[in-house]
Input
Amino acid sequence: MPKGCKNNGTCGTDGCNKLSVFDWLSNMALPDGMAPFEFVEVRFKNGRKHFYRNTENLSLSMGDVVATEATPGHDVGVVSLVGELVRVQMKKKKVRQDSNEILKIYRKASQKDIDVWQQAREREESIRGRAREIAIRLNLKMKISDVEFQGDGSKATFYYTAEERVDFRQLIKEFAREFNTRIEMRQIGFRQEAARLGGIGSCGRELCCSTWLTDFRSVNTSAARYQQLSLNPQKLAGQCGKLKCCLNYELDTYLDALKSFPKTDVKLQTEKGVAVCQKIDIFKGLLWYAYEGEWSTWHALEVSQANAIIAANAKKEKVSSLEEFAISPTTESKPEFNDGVGQDSLTRFDKKNSGKKKKKSKKRKRKPQKNE
Output
């Protein structure tokens, strides 16, 4: 098996089982008369998983290396899940048990199968670099992001990204002549490319798409607008070049909070003038309005107060002014802190005995003079 850092994490070295599932039912026996579930989930390179039928009734557990059916030949993967949890995963991913597309497991991988598999995996990095050189020489507008060999080394799958349709017929011919193996080209999206390659996000953690995120939902710029974020593409875009998936995580909470807020394009009619919304604060529940012509002076209103003025305007009634409802800005009081142990001092780690060392050094210099 490929060796990783052995810390049971997801370091991206392909040895730590990205998107792994913990089997909570592994220490529980099946009821009497119940046969074990015949389907097994097998993981391949970079979190690629498929379901296989255990027709040989092999005694499999998580982490076993197995040889699976492929077209042509066989593939080698690691068992990622067994038992009743596989039934739950198949139901979640809408995979039917009677589907003819589900292949079967041949056997547990022998040492020869693992050796051939490792030799094929060691060739992937050099072949990927050579494949990129050939694609550039042919002036193809595509990017080869990853190469994956089949377990028996009889086929190589090239994953690529492209914004337009690419005619790679000549490319396949040169690949087959150069690498002397069966070639398969598979196009993936930019989010799938980031998930396969992995990396560290701006939050300091490993990318969600390469660790636990399994479905990629569309992210719109409206998600940033609802959360009062500046539309800066350099900050909102992830390593895939698309909007970050985490913009959708708190979007529902913001939408629920905005239901009580009035629309920002609604103007407040007062006897002093017409007020226009300038800014809202979802966390504090405040809205700032300014009179037309007096844009530099803002008046803070609570959500209930703004809704009351809008309701009065709907009845063709005007309030006298916003000053009656405006909230005086309050300065946040800073808590008093007494530095009792010197933790706020920038020089608390500096050595304070520098004077004594200087005196000792002077005495050492004087001693040889006395002896002379």
Summary: DSSP finds ten helices and twelve strands in the chain. The chain has four domains: 39-109, 119-188, 195-256, 260-329. Residues 6-15 have pLDDT under 50 and may be disordered.
